[in-house]
Amino acid sequence: MNTRLLCAMTLAPLTLIACSDSSDRPSTPPAVACSGTAVTPERLFLQQVGSDRAIIKWRGNTDGGAEADAVCFGTEMDFLDEDSLTAAEVTATGHSEALLQGLTPDTTYYYSVGGAGSAQAQHSFRTAPEAGQLPADGNIRLWIVGDSGVNSQENEYQGGADLVRDGYLAWVNENGGEPADLFLMLGDNAYPEGTDVQHQIAVFDTYPDILSSTGLWPTIGNHEMGFFGASTSSDPDSFSAPQGGEPDPAPDSPMPYLNIHTLPTNGEAGGVGSGTEQYYSFDYGSVHVVSLDSQLAVRDPASREAMLQWVTDDLAANTSDWTVVIFHHPPYTKGSHDSDKILGGIDQPIFDMREQFTPVFDEYGVDLVYSGHSHIYERSFYIGGHTGLAATFDPATNAELNDAGQPASGQGDEEYTQVTRNGTDDKVVYTVAGNGGKATDVADSFPHPAHFFGGLVIGSVVVDAAESSLTARFIDDNGEVLDSFTINR
Amino acid sequence: MFCSSQAHSIWGRLPPLPYPQSRARLILHTFSLVLALATATVTAGPAAGSRVDILSAEINSNPEEQQLYLRRALAWADSGQNDKAMADVNHAEQLGDPLQATLVRGILWFRQDQLEPARTCFDAFLDRYPDHPGALGYRARLLRSSGDNAGALADYQQLIALQPAQDPGIYLATAQLLAAEPDLQIPEALALLDRRITEVGAIPQLQRYAIRLEKQRGNYSAALRRLSTLDDSIRATPQWHVETAELLLLSGHPAQAQSHLLVATEQLQNLRPTPARAVTREKAATLLEQANNLPIQK
User: Fold this and answer.
1) pLDDT digits over B279-295, tens only?
2) Is there a domain that residue A184 lies in?
3) Measured distance CA(A257)–CA(A271) in Å, rounded
4) Residue A70 belongs to a domain with what CATH number?
5) What is this model's ipTM?
């Protein structure tokens, strides 16, 4: 009796295939690799990288040929199955975007723009772990850069963003090589007006390898609002750009920021849908990130009220281990902007965010707030309940204190605990990181009393969120850590 | 009133504060110090002076270009030099369509809270360009600020008709104005909200206000229906269960309210304590006591 017959006689039908040799298997067509031609776009970036979906977005062809109209993707760099071929939609401003769905959480995917059968090494990304979970390496890393748009403006700051990027990469290389899972931009991403051309230079030409492998999550800065970032309008139609570019054509918004990015409006990446790309939230494993609009939405009282309602609901529904909020105008700063001065209406959003939004952060368990606008690095103590001018800050009531009754530093034996001495999660660390390309000035009344650390130096922030602790580091352009703090759960 | 350049200025109303004491440390990086020395004053983004300088250079090359003066007017205003801003607007008025200058003059007045002269300017501009979204938006905000709700409502409605993909706040403002109108009131406001909700989903910015309106008119069952359309993640919160219980109590269903309150209480025991959850816990306890004291309907 041969082996095949024994199997057929003794085993259940479901296991028959396992006993068979290959010649008996039901015929499944052999996998075929994609057969398109890889295209190198002029801009290539990832949006809404979640646990089961991601958007690959691009425009142009550096070779000058036809633009790609599809992507192939898969988990093997050298074999992208033709079944993965995904057509892109083309937007009014000529961006192609391919939505990849049905992805496996916490898995590395490779892709080819143009639909070739294999991918270039830098064209890969890792999906998020499932909501509430950590990735296999046990750590979620956020890279945060503010006011980095200097490369698109001809002045002495050009190149500053490159130095910051290289300092960050040097630090990563010297400390285990773990790449960022998320890339957060704090606004003023393209000086001076946020035109499409300026975004190309300051964003896409500055971070090409990072953008092709890491999901980008931005927030609106005043310089995304057009002419020299001075608009106090709540209307995207007020965008004007006399220097180096034109408003985007209808039917898109005139504002390039809103056309370049494809941001979640309906809770596609977790969080509560906002119905607008101006502000949104998402989950990345155990981290919940909220991006608020301290420019457009804050300018109009009704829009501000609407955003306040939304963020209250979003945070109430959030049960993530860690919560990070980003927006452009810092509630507390004594850098190149002074959070005690409205500056002719330009800095009114600083007051609005501090007076109306920081109480919500206190109430709903936000851990970290990152802003830009002020071209400096400033990091607060673990604070709450402070909505007034700097002179009203009272460490005894507004800050978490150490054993000596002084505001705790967040370092060494003064690390913070998420649930404070009050027995509740009622405090937040506020960081100004508007120094991603230039560090320009301090206010006459520097430093702000809510701040532990201030550095007139360019750099960026790395946040490492693990199961029981979160550590944030400020890394300068030399790859040196100049400040850090830890919050424990 | 004529759209003029005469009004009271409120620039610079906040005095500087005394130097505060703090444990903060300042690092002066060599590279950054060089950058710092290049910028003399604390300004908005790139120094406002440089923006004026660039525009002034362009004006020197194109002294008859109206738009350059109008842009420089806004740049002057941003640096607090309102007299120079108005001078540029006055000059621009002579170089082309005077209404272009009128719009900028209105914006300058509006930013100074000078609502009457600003309104005159926006009125003049919109007489000629009635479908200009930016001007409509400015005038709608202005009219609402000055208590002319009917006028504001008309402008907001026109804005939405022109560009339906507005920020949720524009719909919220319009609904609030509709609800306050004696002749239209809540049904019209709800109809507007529902039109937008159909397009973008039951986002809390709009549905929450709709729920408030339903409660306001005593239609608790409709409020409950709306509450049940909120995002799954909202409906999983203890806050949502407490809100639902409150509406059930108002509509005379204490047994169902009790169920929701017990769910909320159990959830709260397993969630990280926050001040908001403490408020919810207290409210749940209060409502539970109310529910226990109400007769159960058969």
Assistant:
1) 999 999 999 999 998 87
2) yes
3) 22
4) 2.60.40.380
5) 0.91
| String of DSSP letters for B67-94 | HHHHHHHHHHHHTT-HHHHHHHHHHHHT
Last residue of a domain, one of A80, A96, A126: A126
- Decide if A336 and B74 are in contact by the 8 Å CB cutoff: no
Residue environment code for A161-172, b if the CB has 16+ CB neighbours within 10 A, otherwise e: bbbbbebbbebb
Q: Taking the CB of residue B220, how many other CB atoms lie within 10 A of it?
A: 20
Note down the domain range covering B268.
Answer: 237-298
pTM: 0.89
Contact at CB, B133 and A391, closer than 8 angstroms: no
For chain B, the C-alpha Rg in angstroms (whole number) is 27
Residue that has been written with the tokens 């600003």 in this structure:
B118
Tally of structural domains, chain A:
2
Measured between beta carbons, the chain B residues lying within 8 angstroms of A452 are 23-25
**Interface residue of A322, A440, A442, A478 to substitute, partner B, most B CBs within 10 Å:** A440
Asked whether A16 and A6 are in contact (CB, 8 A), the reply is: no
For residues A248 and A293, state if they share a domain: yes
Residues on chain B touching A202 (C-beta within 8 angstroms):
none
Query: How many CA atoms lie within 13 Å of B210's alpha carbon, on the beta-carbon side?
Result: 28
Distance from CA of B174 to the nearest CA of A (A): 9
First to last CA, chain A: 64
Q: Are residues A364 and A277 in the same domain?
A: yes
